[in-house]
Design the sequence.
């Protein structure tokens, strides 16, 4: 299981097309926090969406449990718990799928809601009956809850060593911002970031 999981995590790290991240907990590889950008030309554009994976020991024979950490206004995602209604996470799962293919599917789900099989009946009702209100609310929630990490202004090479240590990117970026850093220029700055992360 862990060999396959490491391969999945490496595939996400090496992928340049999708701009996904996946960071396991340092003490437990099966608890993973992943993120992906909202699809272009959708109400979720400009947002960064965080999903938690809990990978069972039987993986890849069984799918990981997944839920949104970021609040999302979407018929197939619970606005309360983040639970996801997606067939490949249930009865359509096969070991051919990977964490990368789940993230791609989740991004596509944001782009193409399936209101016929809702996770959140209230949101599905708005989606079906009041499409303009749905679009407006989804955009508002994206602006409020799915703020992307300000990675653009922060030097990637400075973030990299902390990612290698297993810290989530969002947390590293938050510490850089808190300390007013965009780049590590000295050992004392590196130490300051590390102390905050710990």
Sequence:
């Amino acid at each position: 299981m862990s060999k396959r999981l490491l391969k999945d995590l490496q595939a996400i790290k090496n992928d340049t097309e999708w701009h996904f991240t996946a960071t396991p907990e340092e003490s437990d590889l099966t608890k993973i926090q992943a993120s992906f950008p909202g699809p272009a030309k959708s109400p979720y554009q400009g947002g960064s969406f965080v999903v938690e994976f809990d990978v069972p020991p039987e993986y890849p024979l069984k799918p990981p449990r997944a839920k949104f950490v970021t609040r999302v206004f979407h018929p197939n995602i619970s606005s309360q718990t983040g639970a996801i209604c997606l067939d490949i996470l249930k009865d359509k799962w096969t070991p051919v799928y990977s964490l990368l293919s789940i993230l791609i599917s989740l991004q596509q789900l944001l782009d193409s809601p399936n209101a016929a099989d809702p996770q959140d009946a209230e949101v599905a009702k708005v989606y079906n009956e009041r499409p303009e209100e749905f679009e407006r609310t989804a955009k508002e929630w994206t602006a409020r809850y799915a703020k992307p990490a300000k990675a653009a202004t922060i030097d990637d090479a400075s973030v990299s060593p902390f990612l290698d240590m297993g810290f989530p990117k969002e947390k590293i970026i938050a510490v850089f911002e808190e300390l007013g850093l965009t780049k590590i220029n000295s050992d004392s700055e590196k130490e300051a970031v590390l102390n905050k992360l710990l």
